[in-house]
Amino acid sequence: MGDASRLAELLRKSGRGGPLNWIVSSHNFEHLPNPLSFLQDCGDLLTDDGLLMMVIPDQRFIYDRFHPHTTTAQILRAAAHPHNASTEAWAAFEQAGLRYHLQSPDGAPKVAWNASVHSDRSLATSRPLALHHARLKALLTTDNFRFAGHRWRFTPSVFELLLFDLGQLQLTRLRTVQVHPTRTSDFLVILQRGSGEPMPEPAAAAHRLALCCRIEDERAAASCLCQDQARRLAEQELEIERLRGKLG
Q1: Full pLDDT tens readout for the chain, 248 residues
Q2: At 140, is the secondary structure helix, strand, or coil?
């Protein structure tokens, strides 16, 4: 038990310093105060053919839907400026301020959902922003608060861009082997130790641009407008099939 941002230290203290063939991180990475430290430790602890397998929530289909996605700069800043009681309070306020749940017809709130949010459901917030702000002001006067919620928010391409950037900067020894598409509200990432050599320019710039465009497409696909259009298209296709059957 402990902060996985200090994975190598925790393993050493338990007498399990590596090398490791396999590391599993499920719904952990988005909580870490220092994700870069975790990735660097995993890169040091794994064997050359060892794998890091991560299950990460897709922010489009959980209560983080309306938050901006995590950037490489934010991850680097967290590594350079260790968290304290103040940053913990602000992290709590940041999440609470844009946290929404899915209100089902039966009134039961859901914190995760799939890509098909039907019209008989709606997104709702449980508390006014003023209450979260009042809690922030109270927390800023304490020195022992520890935030346990989501600090970082990803889609598959957002995570892939982060790993690419860290590799280009030679800040991690890990490379992306595979990013599986989101199923329900999570996606699976498989990482392995790589050569550590950055991709040469201008190929790197072209790859980053492609990833940025994929991020844009992912966010657009989750919007209410695109979902409505997809439903209408599906209805039109069904109607066309019905008419074809009627005519022939």
Answers
A1: 467 888 888 888 888 777 899 999 999 999 999 999 999 999 999 999 999 999 999 999 999 999 999 999 999 999 999 789 999 999 999 999 999 998 877 778 889 988 876 555 688 887 899 999 999 999 999 998 999 999 999 999 999 999 999 999 999 999 999 999 999 999 999 999 987 789 999 999 999 999 999 999 999 988 888 878 888 888 999 999 999 988 87
A2: coil
- C-alpha–C-alpha distance, residues 200 and 123, integer Å: 44
Length of the chain: 248
Q: How far apart are CA 193 and CA 50, in angstroms?
A: 7
- Burial of 120: CB neighbours in 10 Å, binned 0-12, 13-18, 19+: exposed
pTM over 0.85: yes
Give per-residue burial for 131-151: e unless 16+ CB within 10 Å, then b: ebeeebeebeeeeebebeebb
CA atoms within 13 A on the CB side of 90: 6
Contact 192, 46 (CB under 8 A): yes
Q: Identify the residue whose tokens are 């922030």.
A: 136
The whole-angstrom separation of Cα 146 and Cα 85 is 7
Question: What residue spans define the domains of the chain?
Answer: 4-238
* Bridge partner residues of 51 (DSSP): 22, 192
